[in-house]
Structures are given as structure tokens and as C-alpha cells.
């Protein structure tokens, strides 16, 4: 059985991972326009996220447009949204369950077996939440790679990995 210090370290790392998944979900830089063609225009940067697409001008002005219709989105984006939200909600549940099972908490102090079970269940829920986020980011990243190397995609319409995708990974 782990000591309280290792348990607290594991909880802090899992909590930071949960915060990272929230940040990754909220940021609009999941894919960034690739300047792969002959016509390189660096006066603007185009990027897309799970919830909106944005254009950033070289003057510092940023314009974002929220995706209007849920039904108009492709299936990869819809599945990625769902998995990210599920991962965040499971992480929230895991925080509450793992907190109850931690040795430094007074809750369930009289029943050590039940306290240990709560800690293990919280850890398993954290792992499931992390897997949901990993599957979502890997699937979305794979889709970016497929579209980038697709010969039917015009050179001036290709995207690369964005910062939010790296945060999610």
C-alpha cells in the first residue's frame, strides 16, 4: 500500500492532467494553417479548435467564429468533443472519489479497507478519463495527418498540429 506522500503526489499529477484537458478543450488552436504552398501569406494565421475557427491578423486583431450547427460538423470533430467532455466529467468524479480515499483525509477513517477501495476506484476513474482524452486527441491528430497527406486536399488548405492538441496529449 502506498504511503500518503506518494498518494498525494499521484493525486496532484492527476489533477494537473485534468486541468490540462480542460485547457486543451477550451483552446481554439487544435489545428493551425500550414503555409506549405508557393503563396506564403504570413499576415494572418488561421486556426481551428473544437468549438470555433479563428483568424489572427499580424496587427494583433483576432476574429473567431463559433461553429453554428452541430449537425454540420464532421464526425471526427463531434466524437472528439464528446470524448473530451466525457474525460473532463470523469476527471471531476475521480477527484471527488479519490479525495475521499486519500490517507490524509478524515473521511472513512474508521474503515481502512473501504478507504483503500475508494482511492483505487478514484485512480481507475482517473485512468479512464485520461484514456478518453488520449483517444480524442490521437484520433483528431490522425485526422489532421490524413487530410495533410491526402492528394485531393489543395496545398493551400492544409493544416498542422496546434498547441491545444499538444496540451491534450
UniProtKB/TrEMBL annotation:
Keywords of the record: Cell junction, Cell membrane, Membrane, Tight junction, Transmembrane, Transmembrane helix
Coiled coil, from the record: none
One Gene Ontology term, aspect cellular component: bicellular tight junction
Entry membrane topology: Multi-pass membrane protein
Pfam families, alphabetized: PMP22_Claudin (PF00822)
Keyword Membrane: yes
The keyword Transmembrane belongs to this UniProt entry's keyword annotation: yes
Subcellular location: Cell junction, Tight junction; Cell membrane
Domain of life: Eukaryota
MF annotations from Gene Ontology: structural molecule activity
Transmembrane segment boundaries: 79-98, 119-140
Role according to the record: Claudins function as major constituents of the tight junction complexes that regulate the permeability of epithelia.
Similarity annotation: Belongs to the claudin family.
Name of the protein: Claudin
